[in-house]
User: Which sequence fits this backbone?
């Protein structure tokens, strides 16, 4: 990078780090650390929800997916309005009225302590996979930018993000999400504009070549569940986004951080609707990259993985200053989501383990110390997960597969809890057992003598969720002594 690029990136890192320390005092209590004492406006929280979605997974992997295939993954974004409507209709009020900091404390009230531990365990596994994937993807670009070994980049980035998260708590996370989201959008727009007018033939060539090559296609559109059709991706998006808005601690803490019910609802719509056009922008960048390098194949190294095409373009074809802005935007995406995951995971460890089982009478000072120390430990685990992903070739598909497996069908258990009172603990436990067997079967896919799973991996969370819900309802009707209708 040029001196100007380094200056821009350094100024950005200094700015967000300073913001973290600025909010240090407001994170001096446990509720300030995890919920900002419920004092934030809806648009601020909405930017944070948007930033949680738009990680380096989006920044690097969405253009990579469009470059390699087409816009099929955009179907995931199109499922967001439905999930947002459900969240505003039920989820935000449900959590704000509960008075609980943990999303999973309510499951214990409904089904017993086993339900809380089940959801907590799979949530933490999901966050480990998420933090590892995001850190790995940002390291791909920084490796190209500074010439470091990717392992060193992962460690350096992981340490910086972990320190920032430990210092400021959720309010620092949310406010820096605002800055980071704006930086990221500006950077993406700049890159899209440079590509739009830098391709030989200009915008007309991009649209004509991209269309002829199927790079704008969201298909195939068949009803098959065995390949990556539009409907498989859309259904996967519905279930993942319902899970995000319904039982993801990241989002629950943001509902609690909003100053009123109206502001919490507004934040959901703001974040969800902003993500749709911005994700489309990243897919468009992937299409632009395909046309750019199709017309000039000598500019692209032979055998370069799709996830590395955008970073390669950034490092070799962008002017000084713009390159630094894009690197800052990538760091913004990574820091936004990683810090959110670390904060929410430390909150779960505090509420669902530390005060629930180990030290129920811990005072607020000890809770806050535990939150900071657990953020440090979780950051270290995230670095390890990122190092394990170095040999991965398709980060977006890998992340979605891990999310489907580690989520463990938690949404099914949550839906059993809020849709009916007839399903009791034993019925729900049968449902969870059935759901886990389905998930294990789908994930093993013929390994160790298991039957081969013919369905697309995106369907794992769908089948696991449905198995939990349907088996739980059936058990209530068969053994509950009365109708399972709420």
Assistant:
């Amino acid at each position: 990078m040029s001196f100007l690029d380094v200056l821009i990136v350094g100024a950005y890192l200094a700015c967000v780090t300073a913001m973290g320390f600025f909010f240090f005092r407001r994170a001096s209590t446990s509720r300030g650390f995890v919920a900002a004492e419920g004092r934030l406006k809806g648009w601020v929280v909405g930017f944070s929800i948007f930033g949680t979605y738009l990680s380096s997974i989006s920044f690097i992997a969405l253009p990579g997916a469009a470059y390699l295939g087409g816009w099929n993954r955009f179907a995931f974004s199109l499922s967001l309005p439905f999930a947002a409507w459900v969240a505003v209709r039920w989820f935000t009020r449900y959590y704000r009225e509960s008075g609980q900091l943990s999303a999973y404390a309510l499951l214990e009230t409904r089904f017993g302590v086993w339900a809380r531990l089940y959801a907590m365990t799979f949530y933490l596994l999901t966050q480990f996979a998420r933090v590892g994937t995001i850190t790995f993807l940002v390291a791909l670009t920084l490796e190209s930018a500074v010439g470091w070994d990717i392992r060193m980049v992962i460690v350096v980035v992981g340490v910086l993000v972990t320190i920032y998260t430990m210092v400021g708590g959720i309010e620092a996370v949310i406010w820096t999400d605002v800055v980071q989201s704006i930086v990221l959008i500006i950077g993406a727009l700049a890159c899209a504009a440079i590509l739009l007018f830098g391709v030989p033939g200009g915008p007309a060539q991009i649209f004509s070549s991209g269309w002829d090559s199927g790079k704008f296609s969201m298909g195939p559109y068949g009803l098959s569940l065995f390949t990556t059709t539009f409907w498989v991706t859309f259904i996967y998006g519905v279930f993942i986004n319902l899970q995000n808005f319904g039982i993801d601690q990241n989002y629950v803490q943001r509902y609690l951080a909003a100053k009123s019910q109206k502001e919490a609802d507004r934040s959901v719509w703001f974040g969800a609707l902003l993500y749709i056009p911005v994700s489309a922008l990243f897919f468009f960048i992937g299409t632009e990259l395909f046309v750019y390098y199709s017309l000039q194949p000598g500019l692209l190294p032979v055998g370069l993985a799709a996830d590395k095409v955008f970073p390669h373009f950034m490092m070799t074809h962008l002017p000084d200053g713009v390159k630094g802005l894009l690197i800052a935007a990538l760091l913004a995406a990574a820091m936004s989501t990683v810090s959110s995951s670390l904060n929410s995971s430390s909150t779960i460890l505090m509420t669902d383990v530390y005060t629930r089982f180990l030290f129920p009478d811990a005072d607020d000072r000890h809770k806050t110390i535990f939150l900071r120390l657990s953020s440090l430990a979780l950051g270290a685990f995230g670095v390890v997960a990122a190092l394990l992903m170095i040999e991965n070739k398709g980060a977006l598909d890998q992340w979605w597969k891990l999310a489907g497996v580690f989520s463990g069908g938690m949404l099914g258990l949550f839906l059993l809890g809020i849709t009916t009172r007839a399903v009791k603990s034993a019925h729900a436990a049968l449902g969870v057992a059935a759901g886990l067997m389905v998930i294990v079967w789908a994930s093993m896919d013929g390994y160790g003598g298991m039957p081969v799973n013919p369905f697309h991996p995106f369907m794992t969370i769908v089948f696991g969720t449905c198995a939990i819900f349907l088996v739980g309802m059936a058990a209530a009707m068969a053994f509950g002594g009365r109708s399972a209708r709420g």
Notes: The two ends are 61 Å apart (CA to CA). Confidence is low (pLDDT under 50) at residues 482-486.
